[in-house]
TrEMBL record:
This is ATP synthase I. One of its GO terms (cellular component) is plasma membrane. It comes from Desulfonatronospira thiodismutans ASO3-1. The lineage of its organism: Bacteria, Pseudomonadati, Thermodesulfobacteriota, Desulfovibrionia, Desulfovibrionales. The keyword Cell membrane applies. Pfam families: ATP-synt_I. It is found in: Cell membrane. InterPro entries: ATP_synth_I. It is a multi-pass membrane protein. The chain crosses the membrane at residues 21-40, 46-64, 85-103, 109-130. Its main location: membrane.
Length: 136
């Protein structure tokens, strides 16, 4: 399964292995969390977590892909980064508004879904603790 996901991400432009690791784990944690919420929580919590996890995962996916591309640009990388940031921020705000007001998603579940990113980065940091790095 990992090789299928790795190949999928590589074909989408994720050439760095650690970035693929982060994006892959982000989707795995989101799906695992959604299964836990489906088993133990009522529908408004499931909807909230699902929307939060999907928003976080999509934001993370596009940010990671853009960051890989911008690393290689010598000048003018700030403009596409800022544009992408503000577009994602506006779209995320609109989706959160619709989810809370119209779909009655639980706010705490939304925050838990968005927090999957933090858990992913924490796990990634823990995996780096024991590794040795080359010094410049």
């Amino acid at each position: 399964m990992n090789t299928l996901v790795e190949n999928f991400l590589y074909k989408r432009g994720f050439v760095l292995p650690k970035v693929r690791f982060l994006v892959r784990n982000q989707f795995y944690l989101s799906i695992l969390g959604l299964f836990v919420f489906i088993i133990f929580f009522p529908v408004p919590w499931i909807v909230g977590f699902g929307i939060g996890a999907l928003l976080g995962s999509l934001n993370f996916y596009f940010m990671a892909r853009l960051a890989q591309e911008l690393v290689h640009i010598a000048k003018g990388a700030a403009t596409p980064l800022l544009f992408s940031f503000y577009v994602r921020l506006i779209l995320t705000g609109l989706v959160l508004y619709v989810a809370i007001v119209y779909w009655n998603a639980n706010i705490f579940a939304l925050l838990l879904g968005l927090s999957v990113i933090l858990l992913n980065v924490l796990i990634f940091g823990i995996t780096l603790v024991g590794q040795k790095f080359k010094e410049a």
